[in-house]
């Protein structure tokens, strides 16, 4: 047995050695030296430089920081003890592999097999995420919700099976698909976040420059309002929560999800792509209002501060009303949580200079019960009889919340149960009968690469 004082026990533990020791794996290293961990959707490591960056939480640093922030080893002495154990368990000097940095992968939609949104994906969005079927169908017909189809080989046999993930396409101002983020519709035992459903950005998607976006309301060159989110589902959930308000206002509203709170740069790139015109004298044609509707936690709050600090010395937004929106139920951190669990559907909205007066999200204690909300029956009707004849306009039904019947109320009471988790998966299903379909005048789903910017 090797003596514990051998030279190889004195060799420092690298981030790569630590990750291998705890069983982590990672994908292809890009030309900048970064690779994404397979177990996380926004955690990247630079193994040559012993650094990590966790974009979803605006965290980063060295191995010691990783052990604390990611693996939850709070005490300094415990981190030292773990690293010393790794050194003792070595059977020889650890050889660090220098990773060849290949060219940065470019997004190419032709490398993926896309299909219309399947019943399986629709069921996930409605039953698990609480999205109204009318909204799901409308976004699917507009090419803003797609399925990626993969053939997966079974590990234990020669059989293969079809796997589908939901795609949220990212389109630039010309309607070209430049990237996407994806969402699994089946739970994985390996994933502890996001209720057990994997999600992440499609390989090559330029998350620092673009994101999921769409517009609703009467067609206009410049939207009246831009609302900024962290996640695609939050943008869709916010639209559902404010459906009547938005469509009754006759405003054109643009929704933009930047796929993570660490992507503040993507907001600026998105604005430049959509609202800057070199041929105009002024160049910029910004919406009258910009609303930050990111998660109501400290990373979300920090993102807003960073953005405003960056542009505090320029007058670009002098004529723009800058607002912050958060769920009024502070036990719900984001808009999909409020849609599913919130005691109220109301929104707290304040001007940017009153940001710090808003209450932050409070994580419920585990013994506190938060039940998924009863998804009430929905009925739909067309609210705008004067929809433009523009082929990129999709007719969307209005969503009206119907009162629950006595039988539904009785069923809801019977199904209440104590759960020892602050984020239970909803078990209630929509009980509405099939919702009337409204077909777009020009179905852009058939041309996913060149679909025009969708205006509903």
Provide a brief overview of the structure:
The chain is an alpha+beta fold and 456 residues long.
Summarize the structure in words.
The chain is an alpha+beta fold and 456 residues long. The protein is built from twelve helices and 17 strands. The protein has helices at 7-10, 15-22, 63-69, 76-88, 119-128, 133-141, 232-241, 243-248, 264-275, 298-310, 335-341, 406-415; strands at residues 35-36, 43-46, 51-54, 59-61, 114-115, 146-153, 160-171, 177-184, 199-201, 212-216, 225-229, 253-257, 289-292, 321-327, 347-351, 378-382, 397-401.
Query: Would you tell me the overall average pLDDT?
Result: 74
Instruction: Give the CA-CA distance, first to last residue.
Output: 71 Å
State the low-pLDDT regions, or none.
Answer: 1-6, 366-371, 375-404, 408-456
Which overall shape is indicated by the principal axes computed on the Cα atoms? globular
- Give the % helix: 10-25%
- Run of helices and strands: HHEEEEHHEHHEEEEEEHHEHEHEHEEEH
Sheet of most strands: 6 strands, mixed
Multimeric state? single chain
How many helical stretches? 12
Rg calculated over all Cα atoms: 24 Å
The count of β-strands is: 17
User: Proportion of β residues?
Assistant: 15-25%
Strand line-up of the largest beta sheet: 10-12-11-13-14-15
User: Which structural class matches the secondary elements?
Assistant: alpha+beta
């Amino acid at each position: 047995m090797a003596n514990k004082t051998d030279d190889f026990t004195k060799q420092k533990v690298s981030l790569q050695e630590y990750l291998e020791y705890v069983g982590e794996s990672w994908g292809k290293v890009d030309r900048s030296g970064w690779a994404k961990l397979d177990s996380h959707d926004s955690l990247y490591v630079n193994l040559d430089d012993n650094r990590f960056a966790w974009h979803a939480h605006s965290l980063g640093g060295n191995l010691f920081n990783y052990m604390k922030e990611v693996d939850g080893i709070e005490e300094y002495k415990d981190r030292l003890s773990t690293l010393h154990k790794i050194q003792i368990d070595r059977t020889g000097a650890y050889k660090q592999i220098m990773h060849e940095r290949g060219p940065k992968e470019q997004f190419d939609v032709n490398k993926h097999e896309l299909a219309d949104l399947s019943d399986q994906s629709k069921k996930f969005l409605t039953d698990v995420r609480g999205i109204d079927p009318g909204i799901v169908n409308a976004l699917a017909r507009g090419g803003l919700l797609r399925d990626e189809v993969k053939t997966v080989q079974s590990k234990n046999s020669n059989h293969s099976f079809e796997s589908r993930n939901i795609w949220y396409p990212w389109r630039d101002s010309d309607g070209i698909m430049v990237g996407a983020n994806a969402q699994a519709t089946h739970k994985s035992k390996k994933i502890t976040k996001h209720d057990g459903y994997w999600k992440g950005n499609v390989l090559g998607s330029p998350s620092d420059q673009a994101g999921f976006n769409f517009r609703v309301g009467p067609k206009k060159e410049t939207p009246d309002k831009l609302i900024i989110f962290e996640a695609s589902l939050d943008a869709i959930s916010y639209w559902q929560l404010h459906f009547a308000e938005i469509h009754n206002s006759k405003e054109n509203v643009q929704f933009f999800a930047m796929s993570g709170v660490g992507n503040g740069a993507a907001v600026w790139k998105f604005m430049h792509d959509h609202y800057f015109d070199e041929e105009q004298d002024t160049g910029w044609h910004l919406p009258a209002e910009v609303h930050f509707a990111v998660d109501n936690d400290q990373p979300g709050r920090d993102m807003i501060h960073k953005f405003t600090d960056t542009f505090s010395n320029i007058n670009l937004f002098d004529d723009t009303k800058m607002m912050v929106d958060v769920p009024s139920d502070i036990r719900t951190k984001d808009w999909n949580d409020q849609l599913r669990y919130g005691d109220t559907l109301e929104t707290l909205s304040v001007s940017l200079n009153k940001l710090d007066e808003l209450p932050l999200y409070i994580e419920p204690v585990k013994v506190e019960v938060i039940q998924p909300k009863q998804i009430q029956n929905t009925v739909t009707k067309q609210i705008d009889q004067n929809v433009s004849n523009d082929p990129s306009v999709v007719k969307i039904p209005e969503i009206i919340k119907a009162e629950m019947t006595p039988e539904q109320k009785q069923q809801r009471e019977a199904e209440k149960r104590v759960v020892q988790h602050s984020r239970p998966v909803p078990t209630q299903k929509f009980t509405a009968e099939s919702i009337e379909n409204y077909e777009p005048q020009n179905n852009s789903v058939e041309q996913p690469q060149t679909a025009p910017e969708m205006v509903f």
